[in-house]
């Protein structure tokens, strides 16, 4: 049977490290790193808050607003031009170094269907996949690039994963035929919550710590993406 691999994008295929570097040019390395971390934290927090309030805003707005929050918290300012440049940098993020070999492995496995599934808006994630210098050569691996935007809710709301299932032609009773592959524990838990299999890339090697659902842990954990894909292929 065909294996469906669903790749999260930001923090899984693409690293925001280049954004931290760009912030470092403005504010010095230590502060740049700290602002980048706060930016990512508020970006996620905003999506969850919007979900809780039953409201929606595009991920590009969420990303811009959370940057303003992170800057204000660090008591620094950036002009509109610099903010636009940082937002544009999202279209040119680098992949983690384990991503190209992993995607080559996927390309060499004809019985794998791979898609990208992200909170980003369609234009953000299309740009990210098609313009990133290291990801674009592999863009052909992906059968589809799926944004949650039409659902008007963010992951880990079940509706977003049901929508994904519709897009890849799976029924609600077939959720376990799909693997969510993510570096983000909240996404891993969201997928398992609707019955998908989930693989977590533990690049920091710190082990699974998410304790929200008691003893629940990812179907597969690996230190890098290539090893993870290998495990899924061998374990089927
Ligand atoms: C994004 O922000 C702009 C400017 O504030 C607003 O006009 C637009 O409606 C927002 N988009 C969504 C999807 O809420
Ligand atoms: C993004 O890419 C998908 C898949 O290739 C396509 O269906 C969609 O129309 C594109 N959307 C935008 C806004 O470019």
Automatic annotation (TrEMBL):
SUPFAM superfamilies reported for this sequence: HAD-like
Picking any one GO molecular function of the record gives: hydrolase activity, acting on acid halide bonds, in C-halide compounds
Question: What range does the record give for the signal peptide?
Answer: 1-16
Cited InterPro entries: 2-HAD, HAD-like_sf, HAD-SF_hydro_IA, HAD_sf, PGP-like_dom2, S-2-haloacid_dehalogenase
Keyword entries, A-Z? Hydrolase, Signal
Q: Which residues form a coiled coil?
A: none
**Entry annotated with the keyword rRNA processing:** no
Entry's transmembrane regions: none
| Any Pfam family matching the protein | Hydrolase
**Source superkingdom:** Eukaryota
Hey, which family's this protein in?
Belongs to the HAD-like hydrolase superfamily. S-2-haloalkanoic acid dehalogenase family.
- The protein depicted here goes by the name Haloacid dehalogenase, type II
Protein source organism = Polytolypa hystricis (strain UAMH7299)
